[in-house]
Amino acid sequence: MEDQKLNEILHAIADKQLTVADAKHLLKDDGFVDLDFAKIDTARQKRTGYPEIIYGAGKTADEIIGIVTFMLEAQLPILVTRLDEKKAAIVKEAFPQLTYNERAQILSTELPETIVGNIAIVTAGTSDLGVAEEAAVTAEIFGNQVTRIYDVGVAGIHRLFARIDEIRSAEVVIVIAGMEGALASVVGGLVDRPVIAVPTSVGYGANFGGLSALLTMLNSCASGITVVNIDNGFGAAYSASMINHMGAQ
C-alpha cells in the first residue's frame, strides 16, 4: 500500500472520520482484485518491476475495457498485446488516449519520457515484421531505446554487414527469423552482447509453423543465444528490457 493512502487512513481514524473496522477493511490487500471474469494482479510491479500485461487474444472487447478501466487507476503503463483491429477500435472508443499499433497488434499508453540503453531488433525478412513490431513497441513502452534493423537475412548477408556496427553498439540484440532461422547463429557469432532469438512461423510447409526455426536456434553453435517461443516478440522484449535496465542501473 502506498504511504500516502496509509497516511490518509490513519488521519481519518485520528479525526474520528473512520472506524477501526472500516480501516481494517481498507488496509486489507490480497494482492489482486477480482473482477469475476479476471483477477488483476495488483502486486506484480512490486514483485517483478513490471506491471501486469493484458493478453488480448481470447478476451472480448468488453472484458478488456473492464480490465483497463481498473488498471488505469492502479498502474502505468497499460499494454494490451495480440489485439486485433476490430476489438482495438471498440476499446479505443472507451479510451481514446490509448494508441493502437496495427502491425504490432498492441494497444498502449504513450511512450515514456525516460528511455535507457539500446535494444537492437534484427529481422531476417519483411514477413517477420509483425513479431518484430510487437517486440519493438513492447520494449519502447518499458522505457528502452530501440533500433530497428529489418530485412537483413542470410539470403543477402551483405545487408547484415552493412548494419553490423549498429548491432554491435546495442546492449541487447533480439534476432527474429523464420524459414530455417539461421540469422540468430550468424549474429551470435558476430557480437559480444546477449542475443535473444525469436523463431517465427514464417515459411513453407516443412517449416512446420516455425518449428524448424525454433530447432535451429535451440541447436545453435554460437554461444550466448537465448531462445523464446515461436512468434513471441513480447517475451523477447520483456527479457531484453530486464537485461537492458540492469545494465543501466
UniProtKB/TrEMBL annotation:
Span of domain PurE: 117-249
Pfam families: AIRC
Database matches in SMART domains: AIRC (SM01001)
Gene3D superfamilies in the cross-refs: 3.40.50.1970
GO BP terms in the entry: 'de novo' IMP biosynthetic process
NCBIfam families reported for this sequence: LarB (NF033503)
Gene Ontology molecular function: hydrolase activity
Name of this protein: NCAIR mutase (PurE)-related proteins
Domain of life: Bacteria
